[in-house]
């Protein structure tokens, strides 16, 4: 499994992804799930992936190949005019890759090759945008009402996102929020694992923003994880106990 | 969907269940998911159910029928000598009911008729015990290492249970913990809904304990829900923000 979040703020975009991949609990590896394409001053596009590793790597591989071996008839992630077009390009590719893999025969279980993606960034002339791309190839865009997307093991870390997200929060606070959400997920599910990749995109900068890989012994991550555990216990203790007399 | 929790404490057992049932989001109803069989001074058995409503109602219905129309050859939930036997009785019944329903033909999707159960209580001569019963009819018992079970939509409400559960907590604190866990789930998933049914079982009492149905406007539930939201936000605000300088 996987846990990735893409979040839209007034200040720009924030992406975080875990790096664990597994085929069964005894076949675990670490893999990058965050990819970025950049032309400084012109476009920055970041992609987070969850699901079948063969499918997600095929998507990345074909995007890279199409760019290296340019051909007018083939779409190139460096050539799209808008992020909507970029989402359509990736969506079509995902749909085709899953369809090809599923042609293997009747023994294939529906959903085996599924993958979902969060794609966001900015192309000059547009505002920053954030999309959720489904295995079926269609996609939705983040709005003020739905300002963040999660893919993979999304449930454990959702309650804190719902409660603490604010669109005008700083990048510093947003990183804290994501680490709390990831910590809840890491504590609850073995198939999500450290290290965690972080990437920020500052609105209208049109260049890659701050990037960091949080290792398991990262002092700030450890401070957030233990601080949050203590704070939760203290907050819980302060709530009034139930009373049988009411 | 559904959310139910059964929890083992030093003081006894605590059960909580939501009451929403749905077949699609436009076909919602309220249904009881908590059933109790009691012979004061001799046995108390409480059952929580999640999954296909036809399956769970069939289990309850057959348990009731077997008792009303007694027959030595048929197992009766009032006649088992231990809770282990009770779990086996219910497990066998669940397995048979799902198998019968799945015989309908090849158009049936695997898992359509699945249901899971939490069963707990005490039979004279034993300590209080708590079991998780799978759709396959087998079951596991709660231990000191795994002191609570969740069925249904279990992920949203799990992080707080992991962090705040303590085996020597009071019933009053346990009810608070369950309401916090249910509140996180209610806020995240529409298929879990109020009212919430609570039942306590006091160790060695061998009689039904305190019961309450929390309605949506219950003052204590509202105090916990809003208090927890505020406390989380305050706890989150107090954690140190990320710094780009580190």
Characterize this entry briefly.
The structure is a homodimer of 246-residue chains. Chain A is α+β, with helices and mostly antiparallel strands and 246 residues long.
What does it look like?
The structure is a homodimer of 246-residue chains. The first copy, chain A, is an alpha+beta fold. Chain A has one domain: Aminohydrolase, N-terminal nucleophile (Ntn) domain (Glutamine Phosphoribosylpyrophosphate, subunit 1, domain 1, 4-Layer Sandwich). Chain A is 33% helix and 27% strand. Chain A contains 5 helices and 12 strands. Chain A has helices at residues 53-68, 83-102, 158-164, 171-188, 219-238, and strands at 3-9, 12-17, 20-22, 28-30, 34-39, 43-51, 115-123, 129-133, 139-141, 148-152, 196-202, 211-214. Chain A has a 5-stranded antiparallel β-sheet, with helices on one face. In chain A, strands 5-6-7-8-9 form a 5-stranded antiparallel β-sheet, with helices on one face. In chain A, helix 1 (53-68) packs across helix 2 (83-102) and helix 3 (158-164) runs antiparallel to helix 4 (171-188). The radius of gyration of chain A is 19 Å and the shape is globular. The mean pLDDT of chain A is 90. The A-B interface holds A 155-156, 158-160, 162-164, 170-173, 175-177, 179-180, 184, 187-188, 210, 219-220, 223-224, 227-229, 231-236, 238-244, 246 and B 155-156, 158-160, 162-164, 170-173, 175-177, 179-180, 184, 187-188, 210, 219-220, 223-224, 227-229, 231-236, 238-244, 246.
């Amino acid at each position: 499994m996987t846990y990735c979040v893409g979040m839209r703020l007034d200040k720009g975009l924030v992406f975080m992804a875990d790096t664990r991949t597994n085929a069964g609990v005894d076949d675990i590896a670490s893999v990058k799930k965050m990819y970025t394409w950049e032309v400084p001053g012109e476009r920055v596009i970041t992609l987070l992936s969850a699901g079948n590793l063969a499918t997600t790597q095929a998507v990345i591989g074909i995007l890279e190949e199409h760019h290296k071996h340019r051909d007018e008839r083939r779409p190139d992630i460096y050539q799209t005019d808008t992020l909507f077009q970029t989402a359509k390009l990736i969506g079509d590719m995902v749909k085709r890759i899953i369809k090809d893999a599923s042609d293997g025969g009747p023994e294939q279980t529906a959903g085996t090759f599924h993958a979902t993606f969060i794609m966001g960034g900015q192309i000059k002339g547009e505002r920053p945008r954030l999309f959720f791309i489904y295995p079926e190839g269609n996609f939705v865009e983040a709005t003020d009402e739905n300002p963040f997307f999660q893919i993979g093991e999304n449930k454990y870390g959702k309650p804190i996102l719902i409660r603490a997200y604010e669109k005008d929060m700083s990048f510093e606070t947003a990183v804290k929020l994501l680490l709390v959400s990831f910590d809840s997920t890491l504590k609850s599910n073995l198939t999500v694992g450290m290290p965690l990749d972080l990437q920020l995109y500052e609105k209208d900068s049109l260049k890659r923003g701050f990037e960091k890989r949080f290792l398991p012994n990262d002092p700030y991550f450890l401070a957030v994880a233990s601080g949050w555990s203590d704070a939760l216990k203290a907050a819980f203790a302060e709530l009034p106990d139930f009373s049988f007399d009411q």
